[in-house]
Design a protein that fits this description.
- It comes from Ficedula albicollis (Collared flycatcher).
- It is an enzyme of class 3 (hydrolase).
- Belongs to the peptidase C19 family.
- InterPro entries: Papain-like_cys_pep_sf, Peptidase_C19_UCH, Ub_carboxyl-term_hydrolase, USP, USP_CS.
- It is a single chain.
- The chain is of the alpha+beta class.
- The chain is built from eleven helices and 22 strands.
- Strand 20 and strand 21 form a beta hairpin.
Length: 431
Amino acid sequence: MFCKYLYRCDDFVVNDTKLGLVQKVREHLQNLENSAFTSDRHRKRKLLENSSLNSKLLKVNGSTTALCATGLRNLGNTCFMNAILQSLSNIQQFCCYFKELPAVELRNGKTAGRRTYHTRSQGDNNVSLVEEFRKTLCALWQGNQTAFSPESLFYVVWKIMPNFRGYQQQDAHEFMRYLLDHLHLELQGGFNGVSRSVILQENSNLSASNKCCINGASTVVTAIFGGILQNEVNCLICGTESRKFDPFLDLSLDIPSQFRNKRTKNQESGPMCTLRDCLRSFTDLEELDETELYMCHKCKKKQKSTKKFWIQKLPKVLCLHLKRFHWTAYLRNKVDTYVEFPLRGLDMKCYLLEPENSGPESCLYDLVAVVVHHGSGVGSGHYTAYAAHEGRWFHFNDSTVTLTDEETVGKAKAYILFYVERPAKPAAEKL
């Protein structure tokens, strides 16, 4: 009995030994499996990186070149913001100014002298629209990623522009105006201990004659986009004329009513709406209706009058907004008319107050970017942008960037057009 018990104990020892070996084998196999999985994961990651790199290569004239453009991730109906940012990033003089600025530095506590990189966890005191805008522009043309997430910039937008809080669709034109206005206001203050006016004066490309003051001192915003309108109002009763000069950053143009039923370029016979039709409608003499009676200082009461706009000073970058959204009794409808626009040589001389004082080429503009709204209403649909960079046209659709051609750009139903002043030819070339 005792021997039998010993035998069973030895059997248990043997069984325990076998179980230990089995466990070790299992652990070894698990380690091998984990190692293989890790190796496979690294291999897949490398393949993805290579495919991402290959996707940013394109063929031009038979040779392979890098696609340096970077998309912007959609954070939830933020295509309106992405389209405007991509357009502004391709206005070289404007973009380069911000990219060359020094980073913001904190000047209090333990973080004094360090660069700040704003995140959603930081307080309101660290919010800087200029800094986040600068970092976004820097990221867009580095060429080391297919898409950049503008979360920090969007956070700042939420902080300082309450109208754009939330994730509903917004009007790209309204966002552009808010963005430029707030950049202008922040630039008027100091930034990183250096006055913006001092930085602007040191920029040789922005001469004093090109500055247009809006709400105070001039900044790069007004130096690039700023123009001046002359508003003439004439009383139809006594003939008194009133003149007023108004600065502008963009011009909002009506699509003439006779063209509003035309939807596509080839849908109907008859004349096609052109950008020149819209500009002519904006600058033509207009009789104000009963709801817009002019207060005549000579008649001492509101009278019927006429109004006419002249452009007293053209900007370096002419931003033209086509008014595609109109309020009806209950809805804001979209005018889906195709408007033909030139890609090169937009001549603005005939809209100037004193065209004889302008040079032969100072009124010519070339297209650099187009914002397009796809869909039926301002609160829905989708925004994309076309932009020219180093002689090539790109289509920016949130995180996707594709190479396109001038013919495709010309067929777009433009919502916002950005034209850059054509540089004057050197004296040697004129001879």
